[in-house]
């Protein structure tokens, strides 16, 4: 429970701080449409720039017809659902309000009901949060057909280059693979920023939020995953290596890490959903810079870092991503749209006499399986073309493929 005066002070101070910020315009900004009667929900990992994105949306207003409130602040730690009545009083006192911007509102239980009410009253509502639970089934019941969802990730490679005024080339890519794309870290280059971010996500978004008592196991799991980018994992094997009591506990921990956007687990492609569930999944970590802070010994495995960067570039555009493993042949990424494979990608730092047959054959096998005539090998800086029978493989540098 809070005081109305505290709420007013919080709104005023936050709005003043927003107006003084300078920021790089995110690519997502051009994709966002605020529709009447629909809430816009933007989710993503902490410090990926969601508050800045809100500021950029606010900057489009020509009048003072909006209200901004970030709930993730010490002044509002005691905010409860009943306190929305105080917020309603403030909103009603501002007769010209059209749009309500709520940052990190998911910390208040029942927020979906309140947002639905504001939509019914004719307000436009924009919500951000650091947890994928924002997109959970709760929205399906309480905001049915009344929201549009977007996900914001740390800087893409193009955003990284534009932010730092780098040319799109292999030199910039080499830097990007090491430092990642968290905006604040790129600006200040202080390792403590990444260490603090790691602790915030682990404790505030996972351990405290889900009431985890065995925080040591959660930390060990996070460290293990950070050092195993692109590797296959299963809850059963992780249980043994981490000495956790049950497979279900490990699975819960993995789900929490995914909800916090820390990792993403990629299933094996199969037309059977059951087979997708029983096969091991490949793990990818949200950001190479954050991964570097957690697992410095991994720093020299540039091929894995490249694969991780490729995954997240794909993830910005697609949600249906799988790996292929049939006939003892592997292909890193099967990208689907409406359950239909549209793009096959192999990742290779540099194609040479030692690895060419393995990389080529895995991609060709996937091309035959899906009856596709073209495939792509994404390299660090190599460009080439292979034609095998009626199949064509393009070898394309990362910085050119994702420009």
Automatic annotation (TrEMBL):
<feature type="domain" description="AAA">
    <location>
        <begin position="39"/>
        <end position="161"/>
    </location>
</feature>
<dbReference type="InterPro" id="IPR025420">
    <property type="entry name" value="DUF4143"/>
</dbReference>
<dbReference type="InterPro" id="IPR041682">
    <property type="entry name" value="AAA_14"/>
</dbReference>
<feature type="domain" description="DUF4143">
    <location>
        <begin position="204"/>
        <end position="349"/>
    </location>
</feature>
<protein>
    <recommendedName>
        <fullName>AAA+ ATPase domain-containing protein</fullName>
    </recommendedName>
</protein>
<dbReference type="InterPro" id="IPR027417">
    <property type="entry name" value="P-loop_NTPase"/>
</dbReference>
<dbReference type="Pfam" id="PF13635">
    <property type="entry name" value="DUF4143"/>
</dbReference>
<dbReference type="Pfam" id="PF13173">
    <property type="entry name" value="AAA_14"/>
</dbReference>
């Amino acid at each position: 429970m809070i005081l109305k005066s505290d709420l007013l002070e919080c709104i005023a101070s936050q709005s003043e701080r927003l107006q003084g910020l300078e920021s790089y315009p995110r690519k997502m900004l051009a994709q966002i449409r605020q529709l009447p009667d629909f809430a816009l929900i933007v989710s993503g990992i902490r410090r990926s720039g969601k508050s800045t994105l809100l500021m950029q949306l606010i900057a489009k207003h020509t009048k003072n017809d909006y209200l901004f409130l970030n709930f993730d602040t010490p002044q509002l730690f005691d905010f409860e659902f009943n306190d929305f009545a105080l917020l309603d009083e403030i909103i009603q006192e501002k007769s010209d309000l059209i749009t309500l911007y709520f940052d990190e509102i998911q910390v208040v239980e029942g927020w979906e009901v309140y947002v639905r009410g504001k939509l019914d009253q004719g307000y436009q509502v924009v919500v951000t949060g650091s947890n994928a639970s924002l997109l959970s089934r709760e929205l399906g019941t309480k905001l049915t057909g009344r929201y549009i969802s977007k996900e914001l990730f740390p800087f893409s490679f193009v955003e990284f280059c534009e932010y730092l005024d780098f040319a799109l080339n292999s030199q910039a890519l080499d830097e990007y693979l090491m430092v990642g794309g968290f905006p604040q870290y790129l600006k200040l280059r202080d390792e403590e920023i990444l260490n603090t971010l790691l602790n915030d996500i682990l404790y505030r978004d996972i351990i405290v939020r889900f009431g985890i008592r065995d925080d040591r196991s959660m930390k060990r799991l996070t460290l293990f995953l950070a050092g195993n980018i692109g590797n296959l994992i299963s809850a059963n094997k992780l249980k043994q290596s981490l000495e956790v009591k049950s497979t279900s506990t490990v699975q819960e921990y993995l789900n929490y890490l995914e909800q916090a956007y820390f990792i993403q687990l990629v299933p094996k492609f199969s037309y059977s959903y059951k087979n997708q569930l029983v096969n091991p999944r490949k793990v990818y970590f949200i950001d190479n810079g954050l991964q570097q802070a957690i697992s410095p010994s991994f720093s020299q495995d540039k091929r894995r870092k490249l694969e991780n960067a490729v995954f997240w570039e794909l993830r910005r555009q697609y949600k249906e991503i799988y790996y292929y493993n049939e006939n003892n042949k592997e292909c890193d990424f099967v990208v689907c749209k409406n359950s239909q494979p549209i793009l096959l990608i192999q990742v290779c730092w540099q194609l040479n006499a030692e690895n060419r047959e393995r990389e080529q054959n895995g991609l060709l096998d996937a091309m035959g399986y899906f009856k596709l005539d073209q495939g792509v090998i994404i390299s660090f800086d190599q460009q080439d073309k292979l034609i095998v029978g009626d199949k064509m493989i393009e070898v394309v540098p990362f910085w050119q493929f994702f420009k």
